[in-house]
Design goal:
The protein has 159 residues and is an alpha/beta fold. It has one domain (2-149): SPOUT methyltransferase, trefoil knot domain (Alpha/beta knot, 3-Layer(aba) Sandwich), CATH 3.40.1280. The chain has helices at residues 14-27, 48-62, 81-93, 111-115, 130-149, and strands at residues 2-8, 32-38, 68-78, 98-103, 119-122. Helix 3 (81-93) links the parallel strand 3 and strand 4 (98-103). It is globular, with a radius of gyration of 15 Å.
Length: 159
């Protein structure tokens, strides 16, 4: 099953970038994981709504058809690591083509974009910087793979 992380912007801190790459590499052992970065919107007048709209256009251009779109927002549904693992496992078992995870930029995701997604997820009730959200998502995808396979990384055991 294909998992695609579409993220606005690139990590600015090299240490953060290295951590993200590490977990994306680990997650790639369990899922066909790809990451695509789209540029943050600039030159749109500074209005948060205009920035979100431009970034939504950039994200939608890169989102392949046929995959579920899951928006990462602080107002999304909170799920446990086991729940995420179960959802991904079920999708793979039933031949679902995959998921696109959308991570917004500094102002978050466009409201219309979020409404058009098949699911919204919250990594925390707290607001996270988009770079941190990307790191947490990569770690949770990796964790989901270890849970599904019953490997010892997740101390709670297999599904």
């Amino acid at each position: 099953m294909r998992l695609l992380v579409l993220a606005v912007g690139s990590p600015r801190d090299r240490h953060m970038a290295a951590m993200i790459r590490e977990y994306e590499t680990r997650a790639g052992r369990y899922f066909r994981l790809e990451t695509t970065e789209v540029p943050a919107a600039t030159g749109v007048g500074g209005s948060p709504a205009a920035v979100r709209a431009r970034e939504a256009e950039n994200l939608l251009k890169r989102a392949p058809r046929g995959l579920d779109t899951w928006a990462l927002t602080s107002g999304g549904t909170e799920v446990s690591s086991r729940d995420l693992a179960g959802s991904l496992s079920d999708m793979a078992t039933y031949g679902h083509p995959g998921v696109v995870f959308l991570i917004g930029g500094a102002f978050g995701l466009d409201e219309d974009l979020v409404k058009g997604c098949s699911r919204t997820l919250s990594l925390s009730r707290m607001t996270l910087p988009h770079e941190m959200a990307r790191l947490v998502l990569a770690e949770q995808i990796y964790r989901a793979g270890t849970i599904v396979r019953g490997e010892p990384y997740h101390k709670g055991g297999p599904l």
